[in-house]
Design a protein that fits this description.
The structure holds 2 protein chains of 2 kinds. Chain A is mostly helical. Chain A has 2 domains: about 60 residues; about 60 residues, Arc Repressor Mutant, subunit A (Orthogonal Bundle). Chain A has a two-stranded antiparallel sheet. In chain A, strand 1 and strand 2 form a beta hairpin. Chain B has one domain. Chain B is built from 21 helices and no strands. Classes of the chains: A mainly alpha, B mainly alpha. At the A-B interface, helix 1 and helix 2 of A face helix 8, helix 9, helix 10, helix 15 and helix 21 of B.
């Protein structure tokens, strides 16, 4: 038998198509893999740098959040000093005042960590709640 | 006394020879001429040519002399061809001799090696069209890979009775690369395309060269396990060369081992072309289809390179497509020479070698695929 019929009867079209596809895709995959070898090796060589960079970025963000109060505890001025900073500010407000008003005025005067320092003053009972959402300033003894 | 003398004379080759033997002796002499005077693939053509001479000396059958007689020395040497041992050993040496750095530097050139394998599948259809049995057609088609050992390996597995003509056709066309490829390359490319200069390759690290044979053997042999005897040995040889701790083995593989295998392979393949077995209409068909396969493979590579250029920012010289056939290093050298002819400063050899080495891998995969179709 000859001709197209012989090709068809012996599954020639399928063999040619499948064979060509397999060899082509095999070599495409191999060429892709070998094109990546040097990149993978470069990455492997610089893994220390990458790990360091990763360590710096990701855990640092967590640390910042978790340690934020510790940072303020360490760096906030002592209560006496806070009083001397806040006294002139309170003097500008009418008593009783809202904490938001104090916060705003502290912010305007560039007081560091106004939120934390106001919280510290509250804890030291220097800002006394009036029960209606307002506060009054309690002068410390000896002043 | 005269009876004895007459009996002796009737047993001589002169008496037993017919015109077919003389034809084959002329063919063998042409091979020797091409190998020695023209230096066309002398490492292959000289042992094959001499084998053709030896194989076509007529003898009295039944005394264990000829290669097809089961108790002959030549038959034992031919064992390596029939079982695919020699091609595997040649691939070991080939791997130990091949530097894949140019391929690793430009992996996209591997696609040209893949494209050039299309000649195999077109020829498969052609051989079926002309009435060859499917296994014979697959064995003939692999000539398009332009790889002698691969052709012998596959034919030994699928159509052992055709080893002689297929091996001779494959090696002949490998030797005739300087005649076959240039007209096709010229026909399919413009001067402007032939003048395209390739950028210098990046430097490839030792570790890349070391990882490649491991990645290669795993990827290719998982895809086509039937290619293991060829690709396993190819990548083993290459690993021996690149690992740097077994230099003795690598040196032996790339010299003594491959040389020994080449001698026996070429010689016994030559011997297998006994006129009564070789000179048949089928052999003529095989030679014709082999030429078609080789030409289509060359053309496919060049055309695919041109197609790639439609999408690439950095154009590749389409001549390189012709080096996608696995005739190492003949086709790369031919591409290089044609590039130099157009522009004496255009050096394409290393880029051609990248395509060439991917062609070796590609044709071995094709052999595995074709074999697996008939398992």
């Amino acid at each position: 038998m000859f001709g197209i019929e012989h090709i068809t009867n012996n599954n020639g079209w399928a063999m040619a198509a499948v064979g060509a596809t397999i060899v082509f895709s095999g070599l495409v995959v191999l060429s892709f893999v070998i094109s990546q070898i040097h990149k993978i090796l470069n990455f492997w060589d610089e893994r220390e740098k990458f790990i360091e960079r990763f360590k710096k970025k990701a855990p640092a963000a967590v640390e910042e959040k978790a340690d934020a109060p510790v940072y303020s505890e360490r760096h906030l001025p002592a209560v006496d000093e806070l009083v001397s900073i806040y006294q002139p500010l309170v003097d500008q407000l009418e008593e009783p005042f809202k904490l938001s008003q104090l916060f705003e005025i502290a912010n305007k005067n560039d007081v560091p960590h106004p939120h934390l320092s106001i919280q510290r003053l509250q804890e030291a009972d220097l800002l006394v709640a009036q029960g209606d959402g307002t506060f009054s300033w309690k002068k410390p003894k000896g002043n | 006394m005269f009876d004895l003398l007459f009996q002796f004379l009737t047993n001589t080759g002169y008496y037993l020879a017919d015109y077919r033997h003389y034809i084959m002796i002329v063919v063998g002499s042409i091979f020797l001429y091409l190998g020695t005077a023209k230096k066309y693939e002398p490492l292959l053509l000289v042992p094959i040519g001499f084998g053709i001479l030896v194989g076509n000396i007529p003898f009295f059958k039944g005394f264990g002399i000829g290669i097809y007689e089961s108790n002959s020395v030549l038959h034992y040497l031919y064992f390596g061809v029939r079982t695919g041992v020699y091609p595997s050993i040649v691939f070991l040496g080939l791997g130990a001799m091949t530097d894949f750095s140019s391929l690793l530097a430009q992996p996209k050139l591997m696609l040209l090696g893949a494209a050039a394998q299309m000649g195999i599948y077109f020829t498969l259809l052609g051989a079926l069209f002309f009435g060859f049995a499917p296994k014979e057609a697959a064995s003939i088609a692999i000539i398009g890979g332009a790889d002698g050992p691969t052709s012998i390996f596959l034919t030994a597995k699928l159509a052992p009775h055709l080893i002689g003509p297929i091996a001779i056709a494959a090696y002949s066309y490998m030797a005739l690369i300087p005649v076959i490829q240039p007209p096709i390359m010229r026909l399919l490319t413009t001067r402007k395309e032939r003048l395209i200069k390739m950028p210098p390759s990046r430097k490839v690290s030792k570790r890349e060269l070391l990882i490649f044979p491991v990645a290669g053997v795993l990827l290719c042999c998982f895809l086509a396990p039937t290619a293991l005897p060829l690709l396993g040995m190819l990548f083993l040889g290459n690993f021996l060369k690149e690992c740097g701790v077994v230099n003795r083995l690598a040196n032996t593989a790339q010299s003594a081992i491959i040389d020994t295998a080449t001698i026996f392979l070429g010689f016994t393949v030559g011997c297998s072309t006994q006129a009564d077995v070789f000179l048949t209409p089928k052999s003529l068909g095989i030679f014709f289809l082999g030429a078609v396969a080789f030409s289509i493979a060359t053309a496919s590579g060049v055309i695919f390179a041109k197609i790639m250029n439609l999408f690439l920012k950095e154009k590749i010289n389409p001549l390189l497509g012709a080096a996608g056939v696995s005739a190492v290093p003949g086709s790369a050298r031919e591409v290089h020479l044609m590039g130099l002819k157009e522009d004496p400063t255009n050096f394409l050899l290393m880029h051609g070698m990248a395509c060439n080495s991917s062609g070796v891998i590609g044709s071995a995969i094709c052999a595995g695929i074709l074999w697996s179709f008939f398992i």
